[in-house]
Design a protein that fits this description.
Ubiquitin-like (UB roll), four-stranded mixed sheet, 17 helices, 12% strand
């Protein structure tokens, strides 16, 4: 195994304890990307981002440049940054928000200039108390520095940026629910169409919604050029990406990895990264992209960390969270806990998600508590099929957003990969591990 030698695009300042300050940011090249962008035309900045093939780092992996090009012409477009990051075991945006907020703000300003918006919003999960404090402080510093507000650096371009705390609802990570929350309403996802944000978004105006890590890549791309970015990675997956490695590994944490040229095996076992499975245990399974994603097994360790390469296995890189489960893991319990999370976080707007998630949680809890029946396995898959017909990936859509159809992922993975373990729970009257 060999981890490729690549530049640290979004984590270069994390080694500095004061990386969140304006003084450190300016000393390490901060706001030079914005100055360069302001010397270009907005169209040229957008073209550079499009040429970089920067895939969105929030979950769906939609190209940022293409999303920008879909923005409907309107008198008052908006830019909204999604910093709600609430997928379990996902914490890479949280790190960027706390440790390098000026990089995020500079990326927002570059995007705002390219899109010619006059208002931008950074929506941050309310529980990120330190992150909220640091982003707001960094924004105040940026205003004082002349990087935000009227006539930025004497360029004639003006934009105001607002930091908005969320209230801790998982559903507000979905972009249209986030927009509802920004407008002061309950975080219910909107029906699409017609409410594609690029057409009808915040306050009914055309809106671009991008993720924190996506924005944080922009200063480097503008300074170094799209060609330097696409020289990293491979195929559609250009550049580097942050992965939040959690679970049963020796060195859990956030790692910036060159896409495609690095594999799951590298991420989990390389001494410079995950360091291997803890305490001499063996790998049993892993979640490749947040708990919405179908699981993979040890036979998939050599899969490259690329959007298309992982999608070919009928799963996804998703939120960038890789959760390792060793041979001490109870797979029934793992599936139940994930399902319980989705049940509790369902907004309740759609029947398949609102009702189906509760039924699945109750059946799994029954198996885990020792009152399960063999027929429960078929019952689980039947309910999953009603929520996402075919129980495949990508899932069939029966609800307004993808939360509902994502619920079956862990259950179907658990039953298909570890059916004997589910049956043993039924036979033994509970988990043999206690």
């Amino acid at each position: 195994m060999a981890v490729t030698d690549h530049p640290r695009i979004v984590t270069s300042r994390l080694e500095h304890p004061d990386g969140h300050t304006l003084e450190r940011y300016l000393a390490t090249g901060g706001y030079q990307g914005l100055r360069k962008a302001l010397s270009m035309s907005p169209a040229d900045v957008a073209a550079e981002v499009d040429a970089a093939s920067l895939l969105g780092r929030g979950g769906a992996g939609f190209p940022a440049g293409r999303k920008w090009s879909m923005l409907r012409k309107g008198p008052l477009p908006y830019l909204v940054v999604n910093g709600d990051e609430s997928e379990p075991a996902t914490f890479k945006d949280h790190l960027l928000i706390e440790r390098d907020p000026h990089q995020l703000i500079e990326g927002v300003l570059i995007a705002a200039y390219a899109l010619q918006v006059q208002r931008a919003f950074i929506y941050i999960r309310g529980e990120f108390a330190l992150g909220l404090e640091r982003v707001q402080s960094a924004l105040d510093e940026a205003y004082d520095h002349g990087a935000v507000g009227r006539d930025i650096f004497g360029s004639g371009f003006s934009v105001d940026v607002v930091v908005h705390p969320g209230a801790g609802a998982y559903i507000c990570g979905e972009e249209t629910a986030l927009l509802e929350s920004l407008e002061g309403k309950r975080g219910f996802p909107r029906i699409k169409p017609p409410y594609f944000p690029a057409a009808i978004g915040l306050y009914g105006e055309p809106t671009v919604v991008n993720n924190v890590e996506t924005m944080s890549n922009l200063p480097w791309i503008i300074l170094n050029g799209a060609a330097a970015f696409t020289a990293l990675g491979g195929g559609r997956s250009a550049g580097t990406r942050l992965f939040a490695l959690a679970g049963h590994v020796r060195n859990p944490g956030v790692y910036e990895i060159e896409m495609v040229k690095t594999t799951f095996r590298d991420l989990i076992y390389d001494r410079a990264l995950g360091g291997g499975v803890r305490d001499g245990h063996q790998l049993k399974a892993f979640v490749p992209g947040g708990v919405s994603a179908p699981w993979l097994g040890p036979e998939h360790l050599d899969t490259p960390l690329g959007q298309d390469e992982v999608a070919a296995l009928a799963t996804m890189l998703g939120s960038g969270s890789v959760v390792v489960m060793d041979d001490s893991t109870c797979m029934v319990r793992a599936a139940w806990r994930i399902t319980r999370f989705f049940w509790r976080e369902s907004c309740g707007q759609c029947t398949p998600c609102r009702e189906g998630s509760g039924w699945l949680e109750k059946i799994l809890r029954r198996i885990e508590d020792g009152a399960g029946r063999e027929a429960d396995l078929d019952e689980l898959m039947d309910v999953c099929d009603n929520i996402a017909p075919g129980v495949s990936w990508p899932p069939a859509q029966t609800t307004i957003c993808v939360l509902g159809p994502s619920i079956p992922s862990s259950i179907a993975s658990g039953i298909r990969m570890f059916r004997d373990e589910f049956l043993l729970h039924v036979k033994e009257g509970g988990c043999p591990r206690g």
